[in-house]
Amino acid sequence: MAALTIATGTGNWFSALALGVTLLKCLLIPTYHSTDFEVHRNWLAITHSLPISQWYYEATSEWTLDYPPFFAWFEYILSHVAKYFDQEMLNVHNLNYSSSRTLLFQRFSVIFMDVLFVYAVRECCKCIDGKKVGKELTEKPKFILSVLLLWNFGLLIADHIHFQYNGFLFGLMLLSIARLFQKRHMEGAFLFAVLLHFKHIYLYVTPAYGVYLLRSYCFTANKPDGSIRWKSFSFVRVISLGLVVFLVSALSLGPFLALNQLPQVFSRLFPFKRGLCHAYWAPNFWALYNALDKVLSVIGLKLKFLDPNNIPKASMTSGLVQQFQHTVLPSVTPLATLICTLIAILPSIFCLWFKPQGPRGFLRCLTLCALSSFMFGWHVHEKAILLAILPMSLLSVGKAGDASIFLILTTTGHYSLFPLLFTAPELPIKILLMLLFTIYSISSLKTLFRKEKPLFNWMETFYLLGLGPLEVCCEFVFPFTSWKVKYPFIPLLLTSVYCAVGITYAWFKLYVPVLIDSAIGKTKKQ
């Protein structure tokens, strides 16, 4: 106990958690890596060996550069370190090059960049309300949050097995959130502007940042009833925020504007010629929509309501990323997904404006924006669920209701990432890591809120337990059936649809209190 008290006082426990997960990442270096490994190797080669004027035109590889300019410069900087490991990885024509030194460099570059994520987690922990402080170190909200973020299962497999650089990007996002909690608004705005020019997926949460900064920073005072005091508007603050965004954007896009290449850059960043869903359906509303269309088409063929010759050849379950026509339900266009996303986001934005509730209200709105965009966006990748899971982690240690939603969202969302790791050696790794993280998340949050009502009702418990039989069916039963050859897509279909139900439920459950509180607020005013 004495050692535990010392660790609590000095903060050594945080360093131990960070060091422990870093060692785990090192152990994962030899594991399977996806085509994203070749994607980033190719980007290293492009930025190192070609002039900037050719970065967004180079197409020797199918894995063309399609991230914003700051990420391209990041790859450029990395390439000047990479040349000391293996010069051959920087040859644009060395497609699918993967020497042992290349593997070590790319794996360690991800681990090294996670330093920013670790720092951001520490800053976020400083923003956590310490009212619920247990006697034991492991019962403290800051300790629980540190584990939930540093040891996040989704980040571990996405970055350190599958291979990507999500860690330091989420580090920028968490650090910007921490700065807003600390009322360092200009720093928060700057960090988020920089983040947008590293990876444009964060555009999903831009409305939350924009409305919160305008409402809580540019307007300096409220009326006694909480409504906005219009005379408190500060032009100086608006101009300052605008200047920050403009300067960051000019630094990022300026060179390509000078080269008259902005249309080419944007065509790479927003490839709407890709299909509604990724090759593996992200578990969102469109997965349920596609599944329903598939079921209706099968029924229609059985009952001879549909002509087999009129059925579109492009199938959502073929594993291809392409545009196609639905068979029974109306086909979905990028514009339709944009409208659905805006409709889903708007209520949370209105609540943030009319009933701000401080930084926690902003964080809730950010999570809803991320989750709504995941639910209704065009060509959403399954890994985008992390954009909602990580900020939701901060809310989970504050209220029991949020903890319940977090556990449903994170368990379902993390399981939906399983198809990313489809090789046999990684099967026990992903199952073990998922079980450890899930068991810790549930047990720690149950302990934190043990004086309140249970975190799950019977229906939620039954649903989450259903993930076990689903995994057994997909990984251990289906491969030995005759359906494997004729219907190879079934495991992906079942995983996507089952997880889509849980994520949709979590989205509704997170949204309902926001809408109810807003309605109560209007009633009181009347």
From TrEMBL:
One of its GO terms (molecular function) is hexosyltransferase activity. One of its GO terms (cellular component) is endoplasmic reticulum membrane. The keyword Glycosyltransferase applies. Pfam families: Alg6_Alg8 (PF03155). It is an enzyme of class 2 (transferase). The chain crosses the membrane at residues 12-33, 104-121, 142-158, 188-214, 234-259, 335-355, 361-378, 429-449, 461-483, 489-508. It is found in: Endoplasmic reticulum membrane. Its EC number is 2.4.1.-. It is a multi-pass membrane protein. InterPro entries: Glyco_trans_ALG6/ALG8 (IPR004856). Keywords: Endoplasmic reticulum, Glycosyltransferase, Membrane, Transferase, Transmembrane, Transmembrane helix. Pathway: Protein modification; protein glycosylation. Belongs to the ALG6/ALG8 glucosyltransferase family. This is Alpha-1,3-glucosyltransferase. It comes from Homo sapiens.
